[in-house]
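Model it.
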Amino acid sequence: MKYIKELVLLLVIVLFILFLNINEASLHAVTKKMNNYTQKINQYIKTMNYNNNSKTIYTLQTGSFIKSKDAQKEYVSITNGWSEKNLDYLRIEKVGKFYTVRLGKFEDSAAAEKFLQAINRQLPTVVILKAYIKKERIIRSYGDE
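Modeled.
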């Protein structure tokens, strides 16, 4: 959807070339622009395919912070107060301009809800999210330290 204007412009340019029979120098400039737009469109399509092919999971988000140090404090607080069996997939992710602290990787919302009920007293503000785990966003991960 992001490149609709470019697609329309690309079509207009092609029609312009076909109907006005422009000179060779102008044709080269138009072709160069068309190739640039085609590359942008292909890149956008790859991004869409990546997101569509990634498997969504359910995870718990314990907090979202503007400052990395605040997310680090939350992360350390969780690791210090919990047994190791509850720390699977504990991580800090950089999502946009926020540092989020997330916990768990669940196949369905029922499993996430069951885990949430077990830990709700320690972290009462936790929310369940449907999300992707993208390695490039992970800043810190329990077990990788």
